[in-house]
């Protein structure tokens, strides 16, 4: 079960990062929150570090999405290039 949870956690994290890179920020945000906990001590330490990175990105995405809410498509495209500067490449 531990190995299965770990694989699922890595898969979800990978999907979240892929969606983030593709500028699908709402889906990335949803996937970051689906990340299951890792039960073992060593795995938990590794996941905690990665999760902190993801939580930082979640806050960036929330801020970005709030700023772009109600903005025209042209404005969204200009704003999304700013999000790329802080996102995954």
From TrEMBL:
Renumbered residue ranges of the record's region Disordered: 67-89
Pfam family, any one: MIT
Source organism of this protein record: Paramormyrops kingsleyae
Sequence ranges of Polar residues compositional bias: 70-82
Top-level taxon in the UniProt lineage: Eukaryota
Gene3D superfamilies for this protein: Phosphotransferase system, lactose/cellobiose-type IIA subunit
Domain MIT residues, every copy: 2-71
Protein name: MIT domain-containing protein
